[in-house]
């Protein structure tokens, strides 16, 4: 039996999940973990499928440890602990596939070069995703690596949904709405088709509400519109990102307040959203536990903006048959779901408060015009499925 590894390399963390493949290349999760605090004092935690910690390691003087060195450590660990199973391929989450890539691709030098040209489109994520690919190419030359793009699921949206109202030449240079969280949406689309095929064939809004948050409008399981745009900064209120903002604010901060572009970037990506409004935390659980008015206002703004954008997507879809909540907040935070659903009553949504409080999969009342679902997302499995499928194609 062989194994594939799903890898999500960010600026200060690397998350990974190991899947064994059976003879038909069907992946089964066998464990996973993360390395956090890279660049400070890295901490590695590896868990088995039932969540038990099977390895924990800290590097106290690890400031200088690079992603490549930490990955090398991880590879050595996997060689010893994978019970003789061979890693057949690594699947990577790559945030930006640019205007061209609609499906996952096997990485080679030419593809890597092309993907590097999208670094400027996602400066906080793309370079780290690609650095992990380069590091593994050096550690294990010849090991197949697959790039799975967060933009790919949105690639075939109607053209109108990809345009900003700016001069055409800029659109042609790639300044357009791409959309992200595509691996999560693809997984939910697939899972909904298994759980509720009738609904999956209709008009559905999926709410991926985590530290990063966005919505996707799906018709027959395909993305037709989404709230994130050129970058993962657009759309909803997020943990530390502002979401949609009048571009005039950005101009004002630079020309009148005298902030540099770098300072504005940090403000909008790292100091805004729930954190900026609450002045307390970017974490929804911490805000819920607080009775400070600023914390409560941050939660209310998060829910109000989510419902407002759902109204916009309902217009895109010409009506809504279902809403699916997913990711950390969407899957776990009953109060946030309830606040959003109450704002959708004008569309005919009727929440079952009991099912919602209990965290059941279906949280709408039988007479609700909109079916309300809670479905856990699994981006790692989606990456493993794509990687296994490309391996199988290669073996044919
Ligand atoms: P990321 O975008 O980093 O993957 P997650 O999907 O893990 O984010 O979501 C993180 C958010 O989910 C945080 O705001 C956190 O408070 C919230 N969250 C996670 N677990 C729970 C829980 N059990 N109850 C309420 N909120 C939760």
UniProtKB/TrEMBL annotation:
Catalytic reaction list: acetate + ATP = acetyl phosphate + ADP
InterPro entries: Ac/propionate_kinase (IPR004372), Aliphatic_acid_kin_short-chain (IPR000890), Aliphatic_acid_kinase_CS (IPR023865), ATPase_NBD (IPR043129)
Signal peptide location: none
Keyword field: ATP-binding, Cytoplasm, Kinase, Magnesium, Metal-binding, Nucleotide-binding, Transferase
Nucleotide-binding recorded as keyword: yes
Protein's UniProt keywords contain Membrane: no
Superkingdom as given in the UniProt entry: Bacteria
Residues binding ATP: 15, 208-212, 283-285, 328-332
Binding site for substrate: 93
Listed GO biological process terms: acetate metabolic process; acetyl-CoA biosynthetic process
GO molecular function, one term: acetate kinase activity
Main enzyme class: transferase
Site feature location: Transition state stabilizer: 181, 241
Note accompanying the cofactor annotation: Mg(2+). Can also accept Mn(2+).
E.C. number: 2.7.2.1
Coiled coil: none
Family (UniProt): Belongs to the acetokinase family.
Record note on quaternary structure: Homodimer.
Function: Catalyzes the formation of acetyl phosphate from acetate and ATP. Can also catalyze the reverse reaction.
Protein name per UniProt: Acetate kinase
Name of the gene encoding the protein in the UniProt record: ackA
